[in-house]
Amino acid sequence: MKCQDCGGEVNAEIKISLMTGCGGWPSKDAYPCKACNRLHWEDGGATSNRGGNPSFLEEGRLVIKDKKTGETLFRF
Description:
The chain has 76 residues and is mainly β. The protein has one domain. Helices cover 0% and strands 34% of the residues.
């Protein structure tokens, strides 16, 4: 699968479980791009938070960046 941002290859060997809602702790697996670390769902769609800001896997941590500036908003 190809990254929607940079066209790089998504690494299906590394997965991170992301919460997709509040009730009952629903989650889905996401996979990072080998080039830019942007996370993608299993269907190839790029992940983002409710505000539309993209999510990345950097140094083993979930990072949310501002969709306009690229500035880090949250690091988990």
